[in-house]
Design goal:
The complex is a heterodimer of chains A (about 220) and B (about 525). Chain A is globular, with a radius of gyration of 17 Å. Chain A has helices at about 15-25, 45-55, 70-75, 85-95, 100-110, 125-140, 155-165, 180-185, 205-210, and strands at about 5-10, 55-60, 140-145, 170-175, 185-190, 195-200. Helix content of chain A is about 35%, strand content about 15%. Chain A has two domains: about 1-55 and about 140-220, Rossmann fold; about 65-140, no CATH class. Chain A is α/β, with parallel strands linked by helices and about 220 residues long. Chain A contains nine helices and six strands, in the order E-H-H-E-H-H-H-H-E-H-E-H-E-E-H. Chain B is mostly helical and about 525 residues long. Chain B folds into two domains: about 65-270 and about 285-305, Orthogonal Bundle (MetI-like fold), CATH 1.10.3720.10; about 335-535, Orthogonal Bundle (MetI-like fold), CATH 1.10.3720. Helices cover about 80% and strands about 0% of the residues of chain B. The longest helix of chain B has about 40 residues, at about 455-490. Chain B is globular, with a radius of gyration of 26 Å. Chain B starts with a helix and ends with a helix. Classes of the chains: A alpha/beta (about 220), B mainly alpha (about 525). The interface of A and B includes residues 59, 63, 67 and 140 of A.
């Protein structure tokens, strides 16, 4: 896929959407074939080079993987950890750094009033927006989003997708909502049983075409 | 729609949790006060001349004594220690079973006052360290094996009674009431309706007590009851470092065996085997119980314990004399001010010890935990750190105090650091286990976005581990304040040293005063610790 593309990955549960994103961010090594992310193979890199590549890839995980005991501001700032030296990361836990940027991201997501709250006190939808805000302050070149809007109401879901797509970076999102995929993405890739069974520009597809990908795998 | 989108103003300033900050600030103040009390900010604390002796001691770690004669002595020391532990634990379980009935809520029903008094009575034996019991009993019974057995059995019995009573009280009452309704007497009804549900917990706890008893038996050896602790202090005072290290290694092996066996029993109790097609007892549990019973019988024979000592006229006379001399307690001014300043020393020692242990444990926890993705180097460092922590907690604190006196000038600092080093051994393992139980995924998510190891630890592991580790640290503080007395008995200052000096001159009135102060102090520490843990939640 090309830079700036916005790709929706669709498919039934267990079709391989999450694993595709995990391979792309280098958390899971590929068992066969070659992987190229932003011009490099994460499996071939290690140490500093791997961290530099990872800093350019932002992920909204399916289960969010936030640190519940930290305040919202720190969980959002965790997106800066690759760019910050360790002393600044430590200092930020005492005197939160980058507050204007964090508040800007949270304001877009209507969560600015919870910035000092402990993350485990938030509801599921609020936590999801914290994870999105983390990617926004990370400013990556490639955004991988696994169901980034699953717990949000339709207005906020649209807003979130616009924000993720509007970072100027390439977006790969697995989505359960076909309407969201068609509205925000330029290209749709369908998966079934781990294989690509559809790859088409979003413009030529209808809701009915996509509905066939959900439900039980055939 | 627009109402949903109305932006909410962000709170301008970060609001800290006042209660927690008060506890945190209070802790820092108390720590600074303790360090000042230990003389850290006023004059020399390091004894430069002792470093060479310390070097010789440390070098001997690699060449422990292995000659046949010493190994023979060592083997019989181990047997004595095991025998004391087995008999002491057996007595504790016996006393605990009887005591549990006496303090269970079930027994007292609605008579709240009686129940509270019975519970309160347990605080006295529980508040005194085994070594204190040992010293008191030596004065009553003379040099008799009963001293070691009772010194373990009495305080452990009180703790066991409380835990057993809680276990019994937690069992649902339905089955018991149903049996009583069909006309069964209280004892058979309890046997069929209460005991089966509680038996797993009772068995687990009994074996846990046996594990602890091994450690206590070593400590009692240090104050003269014989066994490994005695041999260790003997080798130490005659400066035979290779022998000291042989004792340390024997201690470590003994502790590992006790923990492994105890853990095997507790795991099996928690996760029993499915029953077959015929009546069958669990082989592991049956072996454990039978072996322990055989060990208790053997210990009785090996230590030549005789019930006659307990009921002899001499013991009775001595008891009457001591009780008459011990009441009323001394309350003259000089003694009270000595008790107060000793109590301050004791608190300061325990605070420094816990601070050292907590900082060390937090720093080592990550390395000591079993790694998720092990490399050879990582696995090796982990094994070395875990072995070091094991040695730290296998050697009793007074021995560490003697080692530290090579390089530190006498005062409360060596005692505090000795206790800190020992507690680090315990707390390091607990912190490593807490780290292993953390959810690894939030940290993996940080690694996936390029965070380095330090930043990943700071944001992904530290926040989640802080709560449990601090709770453990506070709990260990309660243990440490009791152990401070032990270190003090052997010379490091505080209430323990005061108690030892009063006992040496048979000043029984003053002994009573010090014991009361000890019980008050440990109870106060328990209360503060419980409050702090509540604030953490």
């Amino acid at each position: 896929m090309d830079a700036g593309e916005r790709v929706a990955v669709v498919g039934a549960s267990g079709a391989g959407k999450s694993i595709l994103l995990a391979v792309a961010n280098g958390s899971v090594p590929a068992t066969a074939g070659t992987v190229e992310v932003l011009g490099a193979d994460p499996g071939a890199l290690s140490g500093r080079a791997l961290r530099q590549l990872r800093a350019r890839v932002g992920t909204v995980h399916q289960h969010l993987e936030l640190v519940g005991q930290l305040r919202v501001v720190h969980n959002v700032n965790a997106g800066r950890l690759a760019a910050w030296p360790a002393w600044r990361a430590a200092w930020s836990l005492l005197r939160p750094q980058w507050l204007p940027e964090v508040l800007a991201a949270l304001t877009e997501l209507e969560l600015a009033d919870r910035v000092w709250e402990r993350t485990d006190r938030l509801s599921g939808g609020q936590r999801q927006r914290v994870a999105v805000a983390r990617v926004l302050v990370q400013r990556p070149e490639l955004v991988l989003a696994d169901e980034p809007a699953s717990a949000l109401d339709p207005v906020l879901a649209d807003r979130t997708m616009t924000l993720l797509a509007g970072t100027g970076s390439t977006l790969v999102a697995s989505l359960h909502d076909p309407a969201l995929a068609l509205r925000h993405c330029t290209r749709v890739v369908g998966l079934a049983a781990g294989r690509v069974v559809l790859d088409s520009p979003a413009a030529g597809l209808s809701l009915a075409d996509l509905s066939a990908f959900y439900g039980a795998p055939r | 729609m627009t109402a949903v989108l109305t932006p909410v103003a962000a709170p301008a300033v970060l609001r800290r949790d006042g209660v927690r900050w008060a506890w945190g600030l209070g802790t820092l103040v108390v720590l600074g006060w303790s360090l000042a009390g230990a003389g850290l900010f006023s004059g020399a604390v390091v004894n430069g001349a002792g470093t060479r002796q310390f070097g010789r001691f440390a070098a001997a770690a690699l060449s422990p004594a292995t000659d046949g004669a010493f190994l023979g002595v060592l083997a019989s020391s181990v047997l004595i220690t095991v025998a004391y532990a087995a008999l002491g634990a057996a007595l504790a379980v016996g006393l605990g079973a009887v005591g549990a009935v006496a303090v269970a809520r079930t027994t007292w029903g609605r008579r709240r006052l009686g129940w509270a008094l019975a519970r309160g009575a347990l605080a006295v034996p529980r508040g005194l360290h085994e070594a204190v019991w040992g010293l008191l009993l030596v004065n009553l019974l003379g040099l008799d094996p009963w001293v070691g057995v009772l010194a373990i059995g009495v305080p452990y019995g009180a703790v066991t009674a409380k835990v057993f009573a809680d276990l019994l009280d937690e069992v649902p009452r339905g089955p018991y009431d149903a049996l009583r309704a069909t006309g069964a007497g209280p004892v058979p009804a309890a046997l069929y309706g209460l005991l089966p549900a509680a038996s797993g917990g009772l068995l687990s706890y009994s074996f846990y007590r046996l594990e602890c008893a091994v450690r206590s038996a070593v400590v009692l050896g240090l104050i003269g009851a014989g066994g490994l602790g005695y041999q260790l202090s003997l080798s130490f005072s005659s400066l035979r470092w290779p022998e000291v290290w042989s004792c340390v290694y024997a201690l470590s092996v003994l502790c590992v065996l006790a923990v492994v066996a105890g853990r095997a029993v507790r795991r099996r109790v928690a996760d029993p085997r499915p029953a077959g097609d015929r009546l069958r007892r669990d082989p592991l549990l049956t072996t454990a119980v039978l072996t322990t019973l055989a060990a208790v019988a053997w210990s009785w024979w090996y230590l030549a314990v005789s019930p006659a000592t307990l009921v002899s006229d001499r013991t009775g006379d001595q008891l009457r004399y001591v009780l008459a001399a011990a009441w009323p307690p001394d309350v003259d001014g000089p003694l009270l001010s000595a008790v107060a300043s000793a109590a301050v020393d004791t608190v300061q020692m325990s605070v420094i010890a816990i601070a050292v242990a907590t900082v060390g444990a937090v720093l080592l926890a990550g390395v000591a935990a079993h790694p998720v993705r092990p490399t050879v180097a990582r696995r090796l460092t982990g094994a070395v750190v875990r072995a070091a922590l094991l040695v730290l907690r296998a050697v009793p604190p007074p021995v560490w105090a003697l080692v530290l006196l090579f390089v530190l000038l006498p005062g409360i600092l060596p005692g505090a650091l000795a206790l800190g080093v020992y507690t680090l051994g315990v707390l390091g393992r607990l912190a490593a286990e807490a780290t292993e139980e953390l959810d690894p995924r939030p940290r993996a998510a940080l690694t996936a976005l390029g965070a380095g190891p330090v930043a990943g630890w700071l944001y992904g592991a530290l926040p989640a581990a802080t709560g449990p580790v601090l709770a453990y640290a506070l709990y260990r503080w309660e243990v440490a304040i009791r152990d401070t007395v032990l270190v003090g008995l052997l010379g490091a200052g505080g209430l323990g040293a005061l108690l030892a000096s009063r006992l040496a001159v048979f000043d029984w009135g003053a002994v009573t005063t010090v014991l009361v102060a000890l019980i008050v102090l440990t109870t106060a520490v328990d209360l503060v610790s419980a409050r702090a843990r509540a604030a953490l939640r």
